[in-house]
Design a protein that fits this description.
Layout (H helix, E strand, L loop, with lengths): L10 H23 L8 E3 L5 E3 L1 H21 L8 H28 L3 H10 L2 H23 L1
Antiparallel strand pairs: 1-2
Helix pairs in contact: 1-2, 2-5, 3-4, 3-5
């Protein structure tokens, strides 16, 4: 029976990093400044009033860019994908899930109102971020260990 893998080809990892890094910087810029410094313009609504859609468009573009970048980097194959890499991938995913769930439980207990909703926006990226960081660290440690032998 053939083992099905839903991982993307290796080249998507490089594309993912090229997408992820600028959008992380853009997301940090929006987080610090509130996105008020960038204006894509105003559009008329049906009542003739202006709608300031610049910040909403920028937020949507940033969220989509971050999610696509995280998916491409996290779900792309390694050059040498074997059972050890698959085990590292699974361990990292479970660790990220446990940490993400624990952070969400703490937030449910201590955050209320708009603070909780703002947290949920950031929480969207906690799971893929923790997975990516832990997987890369474990992969680096494995490669270093194999190099020393």
């Amino acid at each position: 029976m053939k083992n099905r893998s839903f991982l993307l080809p290796h080249v998507f990892g490089k594309i993912g990093w090229a997408i992820l890094v600028p959008f992380i910087l853009l997301g940090l810029f929006i987080m610090v400044t509130g996105g008020e410094d960038i204006n894509f313009g105003r559009f008329f609504s049906a009542t003739g009033n202006y709608l300031d859609t610049g910040s909403r468009i920028l937020n949507n573009i940033t969220i989509i860019g971050l999610l696509v970048g995280f998916i491409f980097t996290s779900c792309s194959r390694e050059k040498c994908e074997d059972e050890m890499i698959s085990a590292l991938r699974l361990d990292s995913l479970l660790l990220a899930l446990y940490i993400s769930s624990a952070v969400l439980i703490v937030a449910v207990l201590f955050l209320y109102g708009n603070n909780f909703y703002e947290f949920l926006i950031y929480h969207m990226f906690i799971l893929p971020l923790i997975f990516l960081v832990t997987f890369r660290i474990k992969l680096w440690l494995l490669n270093r260990e194999q190099y020393e032998e």
